[in-house]
Amino acid sequence: MQAKLVHEKAQRFDRGTAVSRFRANYSTQINAFIALVVLMIVLSFIAPSFLTSKNLLTVLLQSSLNSIVAVGMTFIIISGGIDLSVGAIVALSAAVMGELVVNQGVNPYIGLLIPLVIGVAVGWIHGVVITKFNINPFIVTLGAMTIWRGAALVFVQGRTIYGLPDAITWLGQGYVGPIPVAVLLTAVVYLVAWFLLTRTKIGMYTYSIGGNEKASRLSGIHTDRAKIFIYAFGGLLCGLTGIIVAGRINGTSALVGNGYELDAIAAVVIGGTSLAGGRGVIWGTLIGAIIMGVIRNGLNLLNVSPYYQLIIIGIVIVAAVGLDSLKQKKD
Predict the structure, then answer these.
(1) Which residue from 69, 14, 27 is spatially nearest to 256, judged by alpha carbons?
(2) CA geometry: angle at 194 spanning 191 and 198, to 5°?
(3) 272 closest CA partner among 284, 289, 255
(4) What stretch of H or E contains 62?
(5) Which of 120, 153, 160, 272 is most buried, with most CB under 10 Å away?
């Protein structure tokens, strides 16, 4: 009888918060879009070459890597977690692929599967450790960040590998008409992510777990399985990013992906996803990633020193997290 009452209470909780969450998600997404438009208008005045079609495609291309990683981060953060190891997973997947394809003679089409398998496996490990050993995801992924980066360095012995086959470089450098392949892949990833988040049970579970994990568990959701899937999905997208970044530079290194975790978190938060979990929109993350790309591109056009760019990007990240904290206090 008590279990039934708890189940009904959990269901009422989910229904009662659904409308308010939808409104909050919609509002933050609109705010992020307005910020993007204002930023682009300002840059069009102070950097006239910004609004050219060539430069806008460059912004989308430069944003594609962060955009894809940020999709997995969105699922993880909405579920109430965090992943500080995404850059290391990108490095590990790219480094292993490069070593096996270039130096060990593995077929390049099989080589394309290697980063995806590595990403899923690593994400699965994170999910299992977090759920089965009840360890905070911040601690797990902080440690994993150094573990996987070290593993990548060991695997390639610190070397940079060049000369990837066309099947891989095309994904990072190729075009379909005027559109870069990486941009098209990003669009596909977001459509799939939108479908998963809004039209499937795993999407509903993601929001539910982030909103109230205990109530979700009591209402019959297998929270551990869902969280393991979410981290594995994030790892899969890191593996895909490893392929694209390797193709773009026509090589791999254990040092690629440095700082990806901060850019991804910034894109997610700027796009309106709450660091407290339970709230977020996938298209908001895309807007946030593009905002990050526009800022970097604008600073380059204005010939701002790379050293100052790091400071400015850092301020943007802190401001985004600060605004999210203020929003949580109001809610």
Answers:
(1) 69
(2) 145
(3) 284
(4) helix 53-78
(5) 272
What pLDDT, on the 0 to 100 scale, is given for residue 29? 78
Rounded to whole angstroms, how far apart are CA atoms 96 and 303? Answer: 36
The DSSP output letter for 99 is I
* Pairwise CA distance, residues 225 & 238, whole Å: 20
DSSP-based helix, strand, coil % in the chain, nearest 5: 80, 0, 20
- Find residue 167's DSSP bridge partners: none
| Helix, coil or strand: residue 162 | strand
Read off the pLDDT band of 24 (50, 70, 90). Answer: low
Tokens 């150094």 — which residue?
146
pLDDT digits (tens, 9 = 90+) for 132-159: 999 999 999 999 999 999 999 999 999 9
Residue 243: which H helix or E strand, with range?
helix 223-249
Total Cβ atoms within 10 A of residue 20: 11
Q: Phi, psi at residue 11, to the nearest 5°?
A: -65, -40
Q: How many CB atoms neighbour CB 214 within 10 A?
A: 11
The answer to whether the Cα torsion of 297, 302, 307, 309 is positive or negative is negative
Residue 9 gets which letter from DSSP? H
Confidence band (pLDDT; 50, 70, 90) for 25?
Answer: low
Could you tell me the pTM of the whole model?
A: 0.91
Contact 312, 300 (CB under 8 A): no
